[in-house]
Amino acid sequence: MGIFFQKAVTLTIKRVICISLLGLFSSTGLASTKSTHIAEVQLQPFEAVYYAYKWDDNLGSAKVSLEALSPGLYSLTYQSKLSKFFLTDKRFEHSIFRVDGDTITPQEYNYSRTGTGSDKALKVTFHAGPPAFIDIDNDGEQMQLPWQNELDNQLYRLDLTVRLAQGVKELDYQFINYRGQQKHYGMQVHGVEKLTLPYGDIEAIKVEIERDSGSRVTYAWFAPELNYQMVRLQQFKDGEEQGDLRLKAYAPM
């Protein structure tokens, strides 16, 4: 009974963490270019705080912040801390990227996880070349890949917010995830809904995240009045909710 209960709690935290890491999504890049077009939109630094739930039980929080380091150079940071009884999980993601005119180019991505279970660290470095390639340091294991269209595990949301503002209904992204793997997501807009969140009532555009795996379904909501910032992320597996991130606070910086 005790062992079964411990495994069940561990799965609960892992499932909520899985959704919190979708770029917080979650994050990626357009399949057609190495550098994603920002369509003349100047990036607005911000800080956003989310609560993480499963079946309306608050398991912790996550924070995303975008900072301008110098002209054309930016930092995007994600950090979360979740806990359930005696189990804990802390995650950190950090992207450094450059914006040149109307394009965003990843330079370096770092990920770390600590807490109950195995710790993990990943570093991804993007080299423009030629030839263009990606260096991956996955817990000390070195790997090199040709750079073919991918961004890192965070940067797609910056492009996605711009595309939503332009009225785009379908998108396709390629990226290197927090495990150092090449992944693909499709995006399909479903319309506008009114949400009640810890932040308050707000209207948001609902987007379905289409994975290559058919067992998981993920929905994300983006609020036009908050510069199209993501305000909710909910994930299901085989019809069962795995986790639900809801915006608590948002502030331009």
Task: Give an overview of the whole structure.
By secondary structure, this protein is mainly β. The protein has one domain (2-252): YmcC-like fold. The chain is built from 2 helices and 16 strands. The protein has helices at 2-20, 156-165; strands at 29-30, 36-37, 46-54, 57-70, 73-84, 87-100, 103-115, 120-127, 133-138, 141-146, 170-176, 182-197, 200-211, 216-223, 229-237, 240-252. The chain has a 16-stranded antiparallel beta sheet that branches. Strand 3 (46-54) and strand 4 form a beta hairpin. The longest helix has 19 residues, at 2-20. The termini are far apart.
Quick structural overview:
The chain has 253 residues and is mainly beta. Helices cover 11% and strands 60% of the residues.
**Total number of strands:** 16
Please state roughly what percent of the residues sit in beta strands, choosing from under 5%, 5-15%, 15-25%, 25-35%, 35-45% or over 45%. over 45%
Instruction: Give the total of domains.
Output: 1
How large, in whole angstroms, is the Cα Rg?
18 Å
Q: What is the residue-mean pLDDT, rounded to a whole number? A: 84
Low-confidence stretches: 1-13, 19-23, 26-34
What structural class do you assign from the helix and strand content? Answer: mainly beta
What is the top-level CATH class?
A: Mainly Beta
Encode the helix/strand succession as letters: HEEEEEEEEEEHEEEEEE
